[in-house]
Amino acid sequence: MKYARFITLTVAILIVLAALAWPQELAPMPQEDDPGILDFLLTGKYIMFFVLSAVGLVMLLMRWINRWVRLGALAVIFVLFGLDLVFPVHPSPMCGITKLFMFKFTQGTFFPIFIVIALGMFIPSLVGRKLFCGWVCPLGALQELVNKIPSKLRWKQFNFTAFNTVRMGLLAMFFLTFFMVKDQIVYLAGETGADAGSETWRAFSAYSVYDPINFFELLHWNVDAMDATWVIMFLALLVSSYVLYRPFCYLICPIGALTWLIELFAPGRVRVDRTLCNDCGVCIDASPCPTIAKLVDAKTKAAPDCTSCGECLRTCPTDAIKFGFRN
Ligand code: SF4
Ligand code: SF4
Known about the structure:
This protein is mainly α. It is built from 16 helices and two strands. It has a two-stranded antiparallel sheet.
């Protein structure tokens, strides 16, 4: 727990320092008819971010979740946000982090659309642990759906510390690029006028840690871009999700990394009543994640992410597992 608090503090300080280090003089003149934060917040996609998070929260509190309910919820999430049929897939949750900061860097301002995605991800996740990841994210839903295919190859208790070290390392590198390449970016922005389609965009992208491993790009379903790289990445995602629970979330995703850190502050969470738990292990066998084993172990310092899927809630024969705001 101490380790996680230290990392949280370090990341928070890095983010604040990065924000302070950015140039302000490149901010474009605001246009009166540009949509603002509220305009984006009140569109269907972002309203549904909050609605689905709230639905998830109610279902967790009421303990209405079992494997089949969860399967249905995952399918709905994937169809709504992952197929470009109901809501536009652009911009993806990953952009809510990378492009939020990229435009601040190249144009000197946070763009409202990316602020809204960030709000849609982090406000629910501050209420209940990773509510966004568990109840809204289409890439999380796809990985979890694949993981539900019956298999003898499941590797549930993988080395979370190793995965998390890679994930936190990527996040640290992402923020450090703002300091390491600041001068180049400022120069390029000044040279090019720094509009979204400019060389500045591409130049910055070259520095972006997440560009080559942004699996959200797969869900853009861009037929022209479905080249060998797309196929290899898609197969890698499917195969790894078949064996591991949410491999992209645990190994790469910056939202996963940040929401793992703010799990510490989210009051709504799965709680294990140690006075009722008899260490029978039924919940560990019945749940899909590596997390519940750590939550029932009183000695755990930093548990893997709990996506608040709720599948463990009704597995305990002594009713020791609950989702709530207080012990
Ligand atoms: S960690 Fe990233 S990919 Fe996984 S559910 Fe959360 S936002 Fe989606
Ligand atoms: S501990 Fe695991 S099964 Fe329980 S809600 Fe969290 S992720 Fe789901």
